Amino acid sequence: MSVTPIRLLGDPVLHRPAAPVVDFDAELRGLVADLTETMHAAGGAGLAAPQIGVGLRVFTWYVDGEVGHLVNPSVDLVGDETEEAPEGCLSIPGYRFDCRRHLHVVATGWNQHGDPVRVEGSHLLARAVQHEVDHLDGVVFVDRLDPEARTAALAALAEAEWQGMQAWVPRVEVSPH
To answer: Which residue of the set 81, 84, 132, 148 is catalytic?
Structure first.
């Protein structure tokens, strides 16, 4: 397991659809471990493989104390209820913009061992699942903003201190005990 650099907005890998996972092997288990450790070090609610430069359909989440991952996920949006709320992204550090998402989802896929997984989520978990699956489809959440909000967001991001960088590495806090 290792903390891996997180790619920043502008990196082409963030705008390419990820490939399905074919082999449920030690390499995949290592990827899930790296995603989980990196997500925790960065303080995120989720992290998708393309965000660490790996073009595979895998993501992890940490919401309400629950850690999980999905391989080759598909998402069903449940009902018509949506919510616009501030959303952030580890590939856009330090910024949050209001983004409309469905309030309820059902996601299916597999775990790192190839066992089927079904996740039902509402509110923050539903938002995290939609956000991470977007990454797997080559979509960054600012792409989902209405045109006026997207223009304003991109103008703000043009001034970001990380502009021109390709990635950032979350710091791991080491306890003295």
So the answer is: 132
Task: Find tokens 């919401």 and name the residue.
Answer: 63
Name the residue type at position 13: V
Q: Are 47 and 35 in contact (CB under 8 A)?
A: yes
99 known ligand binder: no
135 annotated ligand binder: yes
Confidence of residue 172 (pLDDT cuts 50, 70, 90): low
Enumerate residues 6+ apart whose C-beta is below 8 A from 1: 30, 33, 34, 36, 37
Give the domains, in start order, of the chain with CATH numbers. 6-160 (3.90.45.10)
Residue 132: active-site member = yes
- Return the DSSP state at 123: T
